[in-house]
Amino acid sequence: MTNVRAFSARRIAAASLIAASLVGVSACSTINEQATTKSYDASDGVSASVKSGSADVSLRNLMIVANDKDKPGRILGTVVNNGTDKASVTFTVAGSPAVGTVAAAAAPNNSVQLSSNAAKVMVEKTPARPGELAEVTITANGQETTVRVPVLDGTLPQYRAYIPGGASPVPTETKATAPAAGH
Question: What is the C-alpha separation between 57 and 4, in angstroms, rounded?
Answer without folding.
Answer: 69
